Amino acid sequence: MPSDKRRVAAGGSPIEHGVKHAAAPRGTFDVLPSQAGRWQALERTVDDVCGRFGYREIRTPIFESTDVFVRTIGTGTDIVDKEMYTFTDRAGRSLTLRPEFTAPVVRAVLEHNLLAELPLKLYYRGSIFRYERPQKGRYRQSHQWGVELFGVASPEADAEVIALGMELISAIGVSDHRLEINSMGCEWCRAEFRRALVAYLTSHASELSDTSRERLERNPLRILDSKDETDRAVLAHAPTIDSFWCESCRAHLASVRELLDAMGIASELNTHIVRGFDYYTRTVFEITSQALGSQNAICGGGRYDNLVKDMGGPQTPGVGLAMGMERLLMLAEAAHSTRLDGAARVDVAMVALEPDDMRALVPVMHALRRRGIGADMDYTQRKLEKQIKSAAESGASFAVIVGGDERAAGEATVQDLRTRERIRVKLAELGDTLAERLRAGERVRNTTDGSVADGSQ
User: Fold this and answer.
1) 22 DSSP 8-state letter
2) What is the pLDDT of residue 366?
3) pLDDT, position 251
4) Distance CA 282, CA 158 (A)
5) Which run of H or of E encompasses 452?
């Protein structure tokens, strides 16, 4: 008989019986059952926070016409030039796996005439794809959630979107974060800044990296995104955009920060924030956390008042943000937050002592589940003590035990797994009894957590 032992090859691929198994492609990962609960908890939190702010979900295809991204993100960006997964389909059309969500959302909004009623408030979540070197919290297939608000040009929209992002971070139990904000100006004051920046960078072209010298010809603002140390040294003395803001742009940013301050949200001016896309105008911002080390960005966003028009629609202001979901999970873990502990919800564990008991409990368990009570059963029929221990470890509040005596009487023994109290209950009354006790237990937990027992404020 061949051995059933499994070993892992040096490259990370498991080998069993001498046969090499396939591994997930580089830069991708599997979400295993032990991890899925945290993802589900994060997704529920996104739904809850966005719902409270009045946003509705939109879902777009994972691939679009390549032109959707080239026109909006801009040539000369790393995303378009180096990172997009682009392919030609059988009809000869160029398609690209989405590297970001804003452009696809705008495409969908225009295609389905969603701008007929403004303001329009949308949120999304799903996979994005970028061919880049995998690193901490960033993968070739990663996951984002974000929001877009169309139809409001005033600073209140910027402040609301930022506040929503900050609320989500707080909702997952993270307090170590910082908001940095800047303005990219309007097309007029940014043009003045661009001329001054090009003049400065041209005079220092010999000190720039090869990539930045290429960008100087095509898209000089992208040099501000460079992480090259020699480029950073040159940029340290470059003109900054705050010297070129027009009065309107300066007042807009000041109003955004005043609104944030009124909501108790601190912001820091960082004139080096430019974001990576060509479509941003005026407000741009990032939320960072030192808990993630050098790769500390967890959120980015800003205003894009010309994007809808550039994609063929009417002049429509917009503002949005996006967050990487992998980094949010890492951040919650680093903060030792329990908010995303999303194990399968089991309220009641069914414990059968004999095969006939198990058959009798199956329809009872189904009835409990239909009532919204989480219920599960150990079908392996281990000893009673082991089943009770496993039930307690699962987080269940009660065990429903049926043996020969209970089955003959049409009853079950209900054990409170915290107090060990046991009562006998008619099977016909089991659902009502458990529902009442679970509600009572929830009231006790709410009171312990500092909330008012009846749910009032």
Assistant:
1) P
2) 92
3) 97
4) 10
5) none
Whole-number Å distance between alpha carbons of 246 and 325? 36
**What would the pLDDT profile of 294-303 be if each residue is shown by its tens digit?**
667 889 999 9
- Please give the distance of CA 171 from its chain centroid, rounded to a whole number: 12
Rounded Cα distance, 122 and 313, in Å: 17
* Host H or E run for residue 86: strand 86-88
What secondary structure does DSSP assign to 321-371, as a single string? Answer: EEEEHHHHHHHHHHTT--TT------SEEEEESSHHHHHHHHHHHHHHHHT
| CB-count exposure of residue 125 (10 Å: 0-12, 13-18, 19+) | buried
User: Chain centroid to CA 308: how far?
Assistant: 24
Average confidence (pLDDT) over 104-129: 95
Amino acid code (one letter) for 137: G
Q: Where are the domains of the chain?
A: 33-186+246-334, 348-446
- pLDDT-based confidence at residue 65 (cuts at 50, 70, 90): very high
**Beta strand 348-352 with 398-402: parallel, antiparallel or unpaired?**
parallel
Which tokens in the block code for residue 251?
A: 């007042």
Please state, in angstroms and as integers, the Cα–Cα distance from residue 19 to each residue in 5, 12, 25, 192, following that order: 12, 14, 18, 63
Q: Which fold has domain 348-446?
A: Rossmann fold (3.40.50)
Which CATH number applies to 33-186+246-334?
3.30.930.10
CA nearest to 429, candidates 446, 449, 410, 445 = 410
Buried b (16+ CB within 10 A) or exposed e, 316-333: bbbbbbbbbbbbbbbbbe
Q: Which two tokens stand for residue 271?
A: 């004139």
| HSE of 321, CA atoms in CB hemisphere, 13 A | 30
- Chain centroid to CA 318: 21
Q: DSSP assignment, residue 223?
A: G
